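Sequence, please.
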């Protein structure tokens, strides 16, 4: 049965190699009211560069941060880390009744992300 609860997901593509970024570690934090991060989960992208759900529980309204470990991904390819070693993306969830998708496009000297669907 498909889980239809709202979630936060990601899809990472390696533009240098022209492939999905498989095995890229991603941590999800929820920011407390005082700004302190609380680790929610740590997962790695699948063979298609995706994590379908970063949430082990219910999505709540609030501020979150996704941290992409780009250096660890480079190590899985047996290459030195690129210029960017990690990327933290802060997002605000105003509606906990819908899902949020955060795609990431990687290249050695550039990163692009946007609010996906």
């Amino acid at each position: 049965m498909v889980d239809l609860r709202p979630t936060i997901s990601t899809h990472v593509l390696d533009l240098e190699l022209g492939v999905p970024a498989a095995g890229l570690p991603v941590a999800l934090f929820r920011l407390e009211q005082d700004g302190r991060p609380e680790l929610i989960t740590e997962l790695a992208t699948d063979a298609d560069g995706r994590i379908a759900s970063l949430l082990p529980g219910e999505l709540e309204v609030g501020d979150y941060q996704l941290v992409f470990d780009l250096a660890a991904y480079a190590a899985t390819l047996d290459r030195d880390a690129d210029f960017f070693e990690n990327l933290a993306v802060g997002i605000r969830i105003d509606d906990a009744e819908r899902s949020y998708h955060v795609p990431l496009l990687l290249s050695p000297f550039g990163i692009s992300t946007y609010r996906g669907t």
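The helical segments are 70-76.
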